[in-house]
Amino acid sequence: MNLLTQLELKMHFTESENILAQYILEHGEEVVKMSIHTFAKKTYSSPATIVRLAKKCGLSGFNDLKITLAKELSLHT
User: Fold this and answer.
1) What pLDDT score does 11 carry?
2) C-beta separation of 31 from 72 below 8 A
3) pTM value surpassing 0.70
4) Using an 8 Å Cβ cutoff, are 60 and 51 in contact?
5) Signed CA dihedral, 65, 71, 74, 75: sign only
6) What are 3-56's pLDDT values in tens digits?
């Protein structure tokens, strides 16, 4: 299952992870260019929460999430 689908389905996400998922779906192009600290600040979360979300989606961390997101967004445009 691709990343965008997992984020849309919000499978087993905590409330904080749901907020992150929604932000990524609405602002994906911006997220690809952000640092983990900027993303955490914009979503009122922590870098640890962002990494946990990435791992729940089967990714190794935030950089892997950004790379995967960029690939999937380029396929949708």
Assistant:
1) 79
2) no
3) yes
4) no
5) negative
6) 999 999 987 899 999 999 999 999 999 999 999 999 999 999 999 999 999 999
State how far the Cα of 73 lies from the Cα of 52, in Å rounded to an integer: 21
> DSSP secondary-structure letter at 44?
T
For residues 14 and 64, give the distance between their C-alpha atoms in angstroms, rounded to a whole number.
20
Residues constituting the chain: 77
8 Å CB contact between 72 and 8: no
| Helix then strand then coil, % of the chain, to nearest 5 | 75, 0, 25
The pair of three-digit structure tokens given for residue 77, joined into one six-digit string:
């445009």
Is the four-CA dihedral 10, 27, 4, 67 of positive or negative sign?
negative
